[in-house]
Amino acid sequence: MTEKHCDILHNDKFGRYLVANKDLDAGELIFTNTPFVFGPKQDSPPLCLGCFCPVDNTMCSRCGWPICSEACEKAPQHKIECDVFSAVKVRFQPVDDWTVPSPQLDCITPLRMLIAKEQDPDRWQRELEVMETHTKERKNRPTWEAEQTNVVNFLLNHCKLGARFSSELVEKVCGILAVNAVEIPSRGGFSSHAVYPFLAITAHSCVSNIVHTILYDDYRVQVRAAVPIKAGDILYLSYTHALAPTITRREYLLESKFFNCECQRCADPTELGTHLSTLKCSKCDNGVIMSNNSLDNDAEWNCTDKKCGFKTSGAAMRKMLAVIQAEVDLLDSLEPGPQAIEQREAFINKYKSVFHPRHSVLLSVKYTLAELYGRVEGYTIDELPDLMLERKVEMCRLVLKTLDIILPGESRMRGMMLYELHAPLMYLARNEFSAGIIAQEQLKEKLQEPLQCLAEAARILQREDPQSPEGIIGNIAYQSMEQLKLSLDTL
Ligand SMILES: [Zn+2]
Ligand SMILES: [Zn+2]
Ligand SMILES: [Zn+2]
Ligand SMILES: [Zn+2]
After folding, report:
1. Which string of b and e fits 116-148 if b means at least 16 CB within 10 Å?
2. What is the pLDDT of residues 97-144, one digit of tens each?
3. CA distances from 162 to 80, 169, 170 (A)
4. Is 80 exposed, middle or buried (0-12, 13-18, 19+ CB in 10 A)?
5. Could you say which ligand is closest to the alpha carbon of residue 294?
6. Taking the alpha carbons of 414, 420, 422, 424 in that order, is the dihedral positive or negative?
7. What fold characterizes domain 315-490?
8. How far is the C-alpha of 266 from the C-alpha of 207, rounded, in Å?
């Protein structure tokens, strides 16, 4: 597709931004964009410079930098740094632990971008030259010095590129990457990033109306409408994690994107009624604790019950969230197994008197639990008792209800939750039927909802790359839907 269903406009609030130039249906493709550059992120552990998989002491025979195979040695994306490094005989310095972040790869993506600029000066001039870099703010960051050493000095002096590129240009390239790069999927779990100049124009909102999919073969991005969009509507992409609470989203956006988000969701202490940031009051039974002014991270938090009067500082709230997030990170490092379910249930039990049941911390743990029930040893779907099937249903519905508000429409998360929801619904209906509680006609009726779940999950997830985890589920959802249709016909 070369036609784009959107136009670029300009104002003081967003700078450049995109608006739809026709009415769009949910799921409709708006534009695709090829990356100007892609490569490892800063502070990445050593990884193959061809396919970004983890490597262990295997090097390119030509340049001596990490590469997993002969095929990757010849990959066009590696040729750029391969030529530069082999010409000046600068080799990768072996490391003790190949799973620990190493600053050595920090220079790779900036170098690829510098060479891409030489190879396509027109595209650079048209699309990259105008991009935001926030160099002034970045100079005050602790990362600035490391970047001077590991990227600017390394490339210009160590790799003898000083006559080809200026230090200002290397700083500009680093700024474009820091402000605009988007994470891309990679084999083996190490994340890499890419710059999509057109995608980068979209305005941010913590309630987005578009979704993006990155394809695995050439890292092209496809951007679609998540909900019906009218001609003239602004396109909004969310640059943060949808389920994160306001404090965390706003800190991330300020830290990495250099702006204070003042979207509708951030401005509302209840987060549009989802209560993703709300705590329970420990001093009374009537109130909940919310920020006085959610657009100020230092504002006081108060109990909503005027008689109670409990209050705490924004700083205390941030500190508590950080401590508990570390616990969630630990849970996320568990191997999928019975422990992964039991420890998460224990976590929810421990914090259920602290957080609102829909608070971000509890909701994201419930999201993972919804995926784990029915899938791990000791908890496979056909051995789950009705009570646990119902628990899985309850968690899926809770997440879906929240997504309807903060990530409305056809998103990957919605597709995944719908897929998770279909199985317990199906098993519960069949169990009721075999226990003689419902008749065949009622069974048929009850199987309509799981059928709808599968149809919608398949429609959403089959837009993802077929090799991606979501794309694989999309195809399974489609097959399960066909099977369920067949069995309904024979009932
Ligand atoms: Zn490779
Ligand atoms: Zn090489
Ligand atoms: Zn916001
Ligand atoms: Zn209270």
Report:
1. bbeeeeeebeebbeebbbbeeebeeeeeeeebb
2. 988 998 999 999 999 999 999 999 999 999 999 999 999 999 999 899
3. 17, 11, 10
4. buried
5. 3
6. negative
7. 1.25.40
8. 9
Task: Name the one residue in this structure whose structure tokens are 């995109």.
Answer: 18
Ranges of CATH 1.25.40 domains, the chain: 315-490
Residues with CB under 5 A from ligand 3 (ion): 206, 261, 263, 266
Cα–Cα distance between 76 and 214 in angstroms, integer?
19
Ligand 2 centroid – CA 216 distance (Å): 22
Within its chain, how far is the Cα of 203 from the centroid? 17
- Ligand 4 centre to CA of 317 (Å) is 16
CA 447 to ligand 4 centroid distance, Å: 44
Q: How confident is the model at residue 186 (pLDDT cuts 50, 70, 90)?
A: confident
Q: 30-42: b or e for each residue (b if 16 or more CB lie within 10 Å)?
A: bbbbebbbbbbbb
Q: Report the separation in Å between the CA atom of 150 and the middle of ligand 2, taken as the mean of its atom positions.
A: 19
Q: With the C-alpha atoms ordered 373, 376, 380, 383, is the resulting torsion angle positive or negative?
A: negative
pLDDT given at position 185: 83
Q: Are 67 and 78 in contact (CB under 8 A)?
A: yes
